[in-house]
Design brief:
By secondary structure, the protein is an alpha+beta fold. The protein is about 35% helix and about 20% strand. A hairpin with a 2-residue loop joins strand 4 and strand 5. Helix 1 runs antiparallel to helix 2 and helix 5 packs antiparallel against helix 6.
């Protein structure tokens, strides 16, 4: 399995391409992907530097998500997700050029450096992390502020991905950051007990998820 993960921690100048906050390259998202064809597919994504409201699973309007762009045997998918389950909020605001930058990043890292494989990346997953590591929040109700975006590059023969909901690396990440948050609070306090229970829930989800995201 070819894999590459990274978490960005340093601020980037506004005139530099936007990179994801998390990415993974894995052959189970597709093998033998072709850089020129992926570039064409990425070139068909929306463009624009203005913040744009996308409607979720609603065919009305010019901007909707999830959005899949096909070319040849490859496609890009952009999808807003939240870890709690099938409910997704009705709108998501993003800059189209940001998705372009992340798509280019996936082509360079996964199709290029990792050996012609597919993968996915996230944007704003820090929103969800901030929510789950706060011991005062209620995980039965995920607010719109915890929603994040995934961008995937896959082969059309692969299952249509929804990695933010189903890839085990997402649950593993949430489990790890929640456990780390737990050890930073007083050992005898209710906050540590709450966070450790949450970490165990996320660890349990790992075994029920599937790389490939479906």
């Amino acid at each position: 399995m070819a894999a590459n993960t990274s978490v960005l921690t340093l601020p980037r100048p506004s005139d530099m391409p936007t990179l994801p906050d998390f990415d993974i390259c894995d052959r189970r998202y597709g093998m033998n992907l072709d850089i020129p064809q992926c570039d064409v597919a990425a070139g068909r994504l929306d463009i624009g530097s203005a913040r744009t409201t996308y409607h979720i699973s609603d065919p009305a309007g010019p901007h909707t998500l999830p959005r899949s762009i096909d070319y040849g045997q490859w496609f890009f998918t952009t999808q807003p997700v939240e870890v709690a389950g099938p409910h997704t909020y009705q709108t998501y605001v993003l800059v189209p050029d940001t998705v372009h930058s992340i798509a280019s990043h996936l082509i360079n890292e996964c199709v290029g450096r990792a050996g012609k494989v597919g993968g996915f990346a996230t944007l704003d997953i820090g929103r969800l992390i901030d929510f789950v590591i706060d011991p005062s929040t209620d995980l039965t109700v995920y607010p719109p502020s915890s929603t994040f975006l995934t961008v995937s590059v896959t082969a059309t023969s692969a299952r249509k991905p929804s990695p933010g909901n189903f890839d085990p690396i997402i649950a593993q990440t949430l489990a790890d950051v929640t456990r780390d948050a737990a050890v930073r609070v007083p050992a005898s306090g209710a906050a540590r007990r709450t966070l450790m229970r949450r970490a165990q829930v996320f660890y349990a989800r790992v075994s029920r998820m599937s790389t490939g995201g479906s």
